[in-house]
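Many introductory courses stop at the sequence. We go one step further.
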Amino acid sequence: MDDLNLVIRERIQKAQEMEAAGIPLFPNGYAVPHRIGEVLAAYEDHSGEALEAEAPTFTIGGRILAVRSFGKSVFMHVRDSGGKIQVYLQQNRLGKEAYARVKELDIGDIIRVHGTLFRTRTNELTLLAAEFELLSKSFRPLPEKYHGLKDIEIRYRQRYVDLIVNEEVRQTFFKRARIVQIIRGFLNERNFLEVETPMMQPSPGGATAKPFKTFHNALGMELYLRIAPELYLKRLLVGGLDRVYELNRNFRNEGISTQHNPEFTMLEFYMAYATYEDLMDLTEELFSAVAAGVNGGSLQIEYQGDVVDLTPPWPRYRLLDALTQIGGLPASALGDPGQTKELAREMGISPEQHEGHGKLLTKLFDLTVEPKLVQPTFITHYPIEVSPLSRRNEQDPSVTDRFELFIAGREMANAFSELNDPRDQRQRFLQQIEARRAGDEEAHLMDEDYIRALEYGMPPAAGEGIGIDRLVMLFTDSPSIRDVILFPHLRAEKKP
């Protein structure tokens, strides 16, 4: 830390001397018409002779990443958001006064350079500077090796440094943006309407999760940060918007892990006159479109050492069948609540008082089946106890018309045919209230306005939620959700 403070003091001293000499440290108004990536792409196939004959000129801006000085000439690597290029600055071309200012530049400074493109003797595309300006002085040094920032805590807390020095991190977030663009295009082409719903809600709904609370002074009322947009999106189905989607931020006051962040991004979409089976087909198409769009057309990706094949169709198992066929549990013990409870205890699961048979089955699934689902797999027919908003299955009313998609041993999507009978929905909410009274903090609250909306009539429909962060993890081979969120939540920084 002392060495760092010394370098910072030296840079500040140098900056003060530059200002005293009339050199502005943070000037404005300098146009930068060319992006480095576009320059490189346009001329990557040009030979040195072709460049010499054409002598193309460009004006670029970016951050200095490396400097090599040779007395009366300097090579630099400069990067913007689109790429990195070598810059060559010579005293005999710039003049002594301007070249003296070049020698005052530091790694991390942001500069503007105007010059001619050529190839060096090592055949590297390089911009020969005719003029340059300092646009922003860097008082703090970058890590000693700009590609070597390894401390995970620093990388997440100081993401701005992480993005400067780690190219693979930059590419992760470029790919994330591309994934979101593909999803929007996919849904727009199928006549889905993108909408926005409230992030502060008088009653948190649409999922079973513990919410964050806040208070609105002007309205004098307690509000909750949304845990899901589901109930508002289904209100839009009531209103006649038959296909809607939202790419939204959700907030859940729960633990933090490699798969969970208190604030995360979800895609939710709803389709009138469709069933959960229709959405299984649509989900296969959507994931295939994303894979093709970010993976060069291939439907095979590598995730943490496993090759995942996204080629449809994907296997489909009822939850009970998955417990026996994949989890290896005895069917006889799963059909009897008492035996299921004993089986759970034997496997280290302590049933809570408020947990019924269906909740225990899903806990057994999480333990014995989920980690084994590396290839994309649909699990269907979840117990009604854990599906308060899902439509009952007509053949077996103890389960719902619902699926979850698992890839790489984790849930990637959740969908179901929607419950649109207001009488059944009210009873489900009342059952959730009883579970909350028994100690389940994640149980769903009553939402009278949503019941009222259903009483006007909602068309038969199906809806789905897909975690964007987990999706990006999958397509960028990232082991932690923090790797794909620009500013993940961390504990408060310790004061020195």
